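Form 7-S
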Amino acid sequence: MSEDVCPHCGGELVFEEKNTFTGREMREYRCVKCRQSVVEDRGVALWQVLHDTNEEAERRRTEAAKRPWWKFWKK
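Output:
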């Protein structure tokens, strides 16, 4: 959200809460004038990106450990 303007009445939006437990960065704003809640989805949460990257690295390490020992020798 580039503007701090309520889409309902044009009033000022105030930041209330940020949730990332779903793997998405969701921010909730509330209008000072009409008290409407506006939720903004900012995409994938940083912890989710790091978690997925670590899982992929662990998967590669376990696959490399399954290879026979002679495959690691260079000719």
